[in-house]
Amino acid sequence: MNNRFENKYVKTSYTIIFFTVLIAGALLFVGFSRIKAKLAEATTETAKPTPVYSLKLSKKELHKTIDALATVKSGATILVKSESAGSIVKLPFKEGDPVKTGQVIAVIDSREQTAQLKAAQARKTTAQSQIDAAQANLQALESRFESANTNFEFWQKELERSKKLLKEGAVSQTNHDNTKNKNSEAQSMLLSLKAQISAQKAQVDAVSSQLKAAESDVKVWEVRKDYTEITSPVNGIISAKFQEENNKIGVQAPIYNIEDNSLTRLITAIPQEHAFALKPGQTILINDKDDYGFKITRIHPVLNGLRQITLEAQISGKPQELIYDMQIPVKIVTQSVFGTIIPPEAKYTDFKDPNGFYVYKINDNMAVRTKITPLLQNSKNETAADPKELAHSTELALGAYLENLRLPESFQVEVIK
Fold first, then answer.
1. Beta-strand relationship, 410-415 and 50-56
2. Does this model's pTM top 0.85?
3. Pick from 60, 146, 310, 349: CA 20 to 30 A from residue 47's CA?
4. CA atoms within 13 A of residue 206's CA, in its CB half-sphere
C-alpha cells in the first residue's frame, strides 16, 4: 500500500512540474513576442526622417574683439580768451554753433583802443615833424660849417704869410694884428658851428627816439584795436560760452571753448591684461561695423588711475551722429580672418572627442557628421572655417539638441521650412 501511495505522489509531482514548465514557456513566448514587436516599432520610428532647421552658410570677415566703452572727443578743445579789456558789444554764437577759421565770434568795445591809437599816431606825426625840422637845421649848419672851415683855412694861411712879412718888415704891426684878429674870428665861428652841429645831432637822436616810441605805440594800439574783434582760430563747434553781451571783461578773460572738428577721436580704457593684443593701426568697430574707419593711433605708455590701458583712435572730420563727450560701446579688433561662418547652434559636441569641432552637413536629406578645424571664434561664438574645408554654400543642421543628444554619424532628416 505504501508503494502505491509513493507512485501516485511521484506522478502528481511530475504533472505539476510539467504544467509549470509549460506555463513558463508560454509566458516567455508572449514576452519575447511583445519585445520583438516593440523593437520592430522602434526600428520603424528610427527610420522616419528627423525634422531639423537648417542654414546655408556664407562667407565674411570674422573678428576677434575686445569690448570697451569709448568717449567721443574732438581733435582739440581750444579756449578762446580776450586780448584787450572792455565791454562785449557782440557775441553772436551759442553752444553747438559751427564756426570757421577767421570768422568773427566776438567784438569788444574799441573806443578806448581807438582813442589811444589816435593819440599815438599824433605823437608819431609830431615827432616826425620835429625830426624833419631838426634834420633841415642840421643840413644848414653842416653847409655853413664847410664855408666856415674854408674861411678858417684861408685866414690860417694869411696869418702865416703875415708873420713872415712882419719879420721882413714888409707889413706893419697893425696890419698883422688885423690878420690875426680875422683868423681868431674864423676859428671862433668854426668852433661855434661845430658845437651847434653836435647839439643839433643830439636833438635829432632824441626826437628819433620819440618817433620810434610813437611808432611802437601805434603798432601796439593797432594790434589791440584788432584784438577787439575776436576770430575763431579753427573750423569747429562752440562747446561752451563763458560770457554774455554787455559784460565788462579784462585781458585774458575766457570767451568760448571751440572744438576742433577737423578730427574726431575715440578715447577708451581697457584692462591691462589685453596689453599684448593691442597695437597701433587696429580697427575699432561701432555697432559691430567699420563704417567710420577708426584706427588706433596711440597707446598711452602709462596706465591710468584704474590701472587700465588708455587708447586713442581718430578719423578726419566729424560724423554728424557722433556727439562730443558721448560714450558709446565699441569693439577693438585684435584678429581677423575671412572664412565660412558657422553659427553656434550648428556646432555639435562628440562625446568621444570633446575637444573636436563637429557639424552636420545636409546633403540629399541626410545629415552627416563632419569634423571642422576652426580658424577663429568671436565673442558671439561664431566660428570661421577655411572655405576650402567648408564651402560657403554648405547647408548645416541647426538646433540645441545637437549639443545634448548622442546622434549617429549620419541620419535621415526633414528640413523644416
1. parallel
2. no
3. 349
4. 8
